[in-house]
Amino acid sequence: MTRAKVVDRATRILDAGGPDALTLSRVARELGVRPPSLFDHIEGLPGLLRALRIRSFEAQTELLRAAAVGRSEDDALRAVALAYRGFTTAHPGLYRISVRTYVGDAPEVQRAAGALLSAFLEILRGYAIAEDELVHAARFARGALHGFLTLEAEGGFGLATNVDASFERTVDAICRALGTWTSPIGGWSSASTARGRPSRPRRARMRSAELGR
Length: 213
Known about the structure:
Elements: H1 3-17, H2 24-31, H3 35-38, H4 44-68, H5 73-90, H6 92-99, H7 107-125, H8 134-153, H9 163-179, H10 188-195, H11 200-210
């Protein structure tokens, strides 16, 4: 038994049953060993979850780069969106475990998340978006795309209207928005401030987590 085999089995369990189905006892039983044997390869359940998050980020980075190679702007984004949709279908559990970025993530997890973000930002740079607007644009595109995929995975589209057509329109709308991306016209800064903002140290920690640092 190797660490890779443990993570492989955990991935299958996660994709089939979601996070609630993933326990060390289940992994050990399916591998035909006793739970204490797993500790020779992983650092308990927290270590297994870290390994799974790293695998998810690395897999998404690889598929993103492969989908975008030789493409730019709308062509690249459409190819990436289709690749992401395929990933969420094939690996729903592995996808879900990567959606949230945790402030307290281990450095190796943050590096893997950062590599994914960097690859996505490179695609957005093809739209000639100002550098100080890139993170905002990335949040918009990620929110729209991942929101759709999450709703689809959770069975949130119950109407008879074709979901594939809705997905195509969503991606087209993202492309149009990125192609005309500008700084806000005004009026939002004061409204955002009025709602209250995290303290400066907390904002710094949140940004570090989002960027995978």
